[in-house]
Amino acid sequence: MLPSLRLSVEDLAVARGGRRIVERIGFNAGPGDYVEITGPNGAGKTSLLRVLAGFLRPLEGRVTMSSNFGPIDRDEQALCMHLIGHRDGLKGPLSVAEHMAFWAGLYEGGDEAAVLERVGLKPLAERPARTLSAGQARRLALSRLLLAQRPVWLLDEPAATLDIAGRAWLLGLVSDHLASGGIVVAAVHDPIGALPNHRVALNPATLAEAS
Amino acid sequence: MLPSLRLSVEDLAVARGGRRIVERIGFNAGPGDYVEITGPNGAGKTSLLRVLAGFLRPLEGRVTMSSNFGPIDRDEQALCMHLIGHRDGLKGPLSVAEHMAFWAGLYEGGDEAAVLERVGLKPLAERPARTLSAGQARRLALSRLLLAQRPVWLLDEPAATLDIAGRAWLLGLVSDHLASGGIVVAAVHDPIGALPNHRVALNPATLAEAS
Amino acid sequence: MNAAVAAVFKRDLTLAWLGGAGAAAPLGFFVGATVLVPLAIGADGKMLALIGPPLLWVSAALAALMTLERVFQADLEDGALDQMLLARAPFEALVLAKGAAAWVAVGGTIALAAAPLALTMQAPLPSLPIIFIDMAIGMIAFFGTGLLAAALAAGVRRAGVLIALLVLPFYAPPIIFGAAATAAAARGEGLFTPPFLLLAGCALAALALGPIGAAAAARLQAE
Amino acid sequence: MNAAVAAVFKRDLTLAWLGGAGAAAPLGFFVGATVLVPLAIGADGKMLALIGPPLLWVSAALAALMTLERVFQADLEDGALDQMLLARAPFEALVLAKGAAAWVAVGGTIALAAAPLALTMQAPLPSLPIIFIDMAIGMIAFFGTGLLAAALAAGVRRAGVLIALLVLPFYAPPIIFGAAATAAAARGEGLFTPPFLLLAGCALAALALGPIGAAAAARLQAE
Amino acid sequence: MITALANPQRFMRFSEWVLPFAAIIAMLLLIVGLTWGLVFSPPDAVQFESVRIMYVHVPAAIWSMGIYAFMAVASLMSFVWRHLLADVAARCAAQIGVAYAGLCLVTGSLWGAPTWGTWWAWDSRLTSMLLLFLTYVGYLALWSAVEDETKAARLASILCMAGAVNLPIIHYSVEWWGSLHQSSSLWKLSGPSIYPTMLWPLLICIAAYGMVFFALLLASMRAEIYRRRVLARGPA
Ligand code: HEM
Ligand SMILES: Nc1ncnc2c1ncn2[C@@H]1O[C@H](COP(=O)(O)OP(=O)(O)OP(=O)(O)O)[C@@H](O)[C@H]1O
Ligand SMILES: Nc1ncnc2c1ncn2[C@@H]1O[C@H](COP(=O)(O)OP(=O)(O)OP(=O)(O)O)[C@@H](O)[C@H]1O
Ligand SMILES: [Mg+2]
Ligand SMILES: [Mg+2]
């Protein structure tokens, strides 16, 4: 982990389809901080995470990062983060092990065998992803966090489709990451169990207003 | 609704990929009954629902239905049910209204305008489904229940990605359906709020055994 | 049942014109192939008249082939196939509606484009409506059998190429008869030539058996 | 970076070969396209020799296009594009790896199949290796420009129109030069004919600009 | 007899004792037919020694069509009655059929080089054999593309039945096309005027190919059934 890593968000405004949906969001997270984003459906949680990950440009405001080596520039920032979105991003015909090998190569890190063990998918290693149950697929998607080994985790409803054991496992994953000095930003409807250091409640625009 | 509708499952065994995953399941549900299926990830909840919907052949056992007009034969059975699976089944380029119109035609029933109002998606009617947030897409998928108007609802983790208001809305939907004499079978990790008349707990095969 | 069939037809037509592969890519291919090949061989007028009809038919068959891949594959992946299986209308009728939508969107456009293209290949003006009808009917044969192949291959990765393999033996007869019928039309022999009747026979057979076979196959894919 | 590029290359290659259809199917498509030609135009050897090479090239271009269409669309829909953007390796290199995998899997098979098929169109035996090289190089041109078009069109509402319109002007030169080079080879003029050099030029340009443009376009799609 | 054999156990018992006899008869017929044809029969007046390819070529052509007919019947049984044995039979037959069709194409091609001076001509008989070959390849490609075997079996049986409708149409259309194009009269069959000295070894070769098919079919069906039994027992 980068020592004294900071992730600061200042006065962020995000638009989707030409409509401003997120206004004036700000937080300043340091090593070991858990940032919880809440808000009703359509409030802009996913959009906000995609701004942080650098996929979407904010309308206003800035996302800055720094470590004790100084500020991290915009291009480098994206490489300090990893986003797990709503979609698992699996390829039906590839097996669990092939997915892991792909990510291990793509992110140039992580010990596949150990990760396979840790996410509990070892017995399913040879199964094509198409045949996984929803929760098994979600576990596989989350294993990317362990293979990419980035200091900042951006999680979009990570516990969806996970069973009780799966949620406990996820909490363990998040807690370990925080304990080792990482930052976790998660958009959730139900708390994942970790105690948030910052809460970002997106404006509870009702669906009716969200036209 | 069909008067004195019954859905009976006897000694059902289901296999996936040549491996038996669900063994000896049985229940007997009548009008207004809510059947809750629980079990860890990979226990076979989705597979069981697909057997009920007639997509998958059971290995052993039978699914039978009857009304007070007598037993309903296997082909007719599938037409008394509606399944909402893990996937929303939306077409990115089609708008919300176009989806509703399609289903209203496909299932030959339901008043689109009223349903659009009831699922709370009216302000988004002209939006292509691709731009919906996860929860909005789920609401749209669930609107099929109101358009198809079948007595038996099969729901696979219906509340995933729904916010608190969305879950309350779903509970209202389910309660109304039960009150009008329908049957609801739902696979869930968290209770959806309705009081189950039957509980089917699938064997908690751990992931490790599920190879 | 009529409402359900109409709904599927309308949705597939809309989808064909909106995103996805659409009708434009096959049309582009069709026009491109029929323009590029004579260009590449530097054909003169007489030559063009000779290779014109067969060229039109080979390109039309390949263009139809190109659109088949995602007909069932997309519906299988996103769960729309489940939705259709849960309808009260017979699944065969819904599959027929899907095929009809593809036929109108792609087949219609190509048949419409074929007529003016035939002009550049020295077909006389009065033969153009006949060439349009030939093409439109040939497309029934291509889409009927193509639907079956598409349903068989859905769920397979790179289904497109498997479909191509499966469909080829089925495309040979309509291509043979179609090219002959178009050549006869260009020679001024009118619509009801023997090859046209044989082509219509192929189309009828494809229309009768294609959707039934495709529905049986697609039902199996929904496991 | 090398590991990431290798990982993308390997994954795309695996995906291309998986599903059983892998080896047989592009072959089937191609064999099919070349079988359809004589069926449509008749068995006249001289005519076949003339129309064969250009049609071979048009179908090769179509086969390339067919596989490219979903290269980015699929990755965009299922979130795999996000995963690649989050890698440390330059995105351009990853896109190049994707293109290279497609080129090896599809282009290679088609080039291999093209040679024996040219035999059936009266090309002499010694020209076969030359035809293979022509095809393999032409495929670089198809995949380079096709990659760019696929990236531009992914996620767009009317993707079909876009791909067709974008790709056709870029495909015309390699098709024309390629067909000419193959025809020259069949006439026994050897490998380094003028059309071959022009074809190689097209391939180089596509190789240089395709992946960079495609990467820039795909980055925008990931919004 | 068919219904009795539909039971896999009974089939295994039956095939266990039939297989050796079938294999021996096939070997004997093959040895007699091929040595007679390839060594002792007279060379042709026009084609000289190259005519001997006929003894390999013609039986392969005939049986590759016969095997497809067999598959179509098996597929119908498999689709309607969901007979495990029927789809095993169809699949195993296809593997032999594709080899026969391929053999016919290759030997025909080898024969064409000396007699016609070309490896390939777009003659109607050649074209329909090529399309038959492609039909086989497509059928097998479908089998191997679908992982779930029960699903693959049903899909393949649909394809096979559709192909059975299509093959006569192909045959007719290609004949019609051939008559249209008068394909440079390459195909001059000497027809029934074949000498008895050539006819007898040919007939024996045809019978031999049939027995080879039968023996191979039994053997590969047995192997396939064993394989499925092992799979059904689950991973070790
Ligand atoms: C439906 C498939 C086929 C059948 C039933 C068939 C049958 C025959 C028969 C009966 C003959 C003996 C003619 C004679 O009396 O000498 C023959 C000759 C021959 N076949 Fe085939 N054949 C088939 C396909 C092919 C194919 C695909 C090729 C080439 C690739 C081929 C090439 C030849 C050649 C070169 C000869 C000898 C040439 C001649 O006598 O003119 N045949 N075939
Ligand atoms: N491409 C787009 N064009 C137009 N509007 C969009 C687009 N993408 C998202 N939106 C809208 O922006 C709003 C925010 O979407 P977002 O996906 O960020 O919500 P969310 O908070 O993640 O909701 P959920 O809890 O349902 O996942 C929604 O109202 C959505 O409909
Ligand atoms: N096509 C298939 N081939 C082989 N195994 C399969 C196939 N489909 C599902 N499975 C396996 O069958 C088991 C049951 O899957 P199912 O999707 O029914 O589980 P589930 O109870 O719905 O789980 P979840 O809570 O994760 O959605 C899982 O172990 C899964 O991996
Ligand atoms: Mg969201
Ligand atoms: Mg499930």
Topology readout:
The complex is a heteropentamer, with two copies of chain A (211 residues), two copies of chain C (223 residues) and one copy of chain E (236 residues).
Chain A lengths: L5 E11 L2 E11 L4 E5 L6 H8 L7 E8 L2 E3 L1 H5 L2 E4 L11 H11 L5 H7 L15 H15 L3 E5 L7 H16 L3 E5 L10 E4 L10
Parallel strand pairs in A: 3-8, 3-9, 6-7, 7-8
Antiparallel strand pairs in A: 1-2, 1-4, 4-5
Chain C lengths: L1 H16 L6 H18 L3 H34 L1 H6 L5 H30 L7 H26 L5 H28 L7 H28 L2
Helix pairs in contact in C: 1-5, 2-3, 2-5, 3-5, 3-6, 3-7, 5-6, 5-8, 6-7, 6-8, 7-8
Chain E lengths: L1 H4 L2 H33 L13 H28 L2 H33 L7 H22 L3 H33 L14 H37 L4
Helix pairs in contact in E: 2-7, 3-4, 3-6, 3-7, 4-5, 4-7, 5-6
Q: How many separate helices of chain C?
A: 8
Could you tell me the radius of gyration of chain C in angstroms? 18 Å
Distance between the termini of chain A: 42 Å
Oligomer: heteropentamer
Percentage of residues in helical conformation of chain C = over 70%
Radius of gyration of chain A, whole Å: 17 Å
Pair with the biggest interface? C-D, 48 and 55 residues
Strand composition percent of chain A: 25-35%
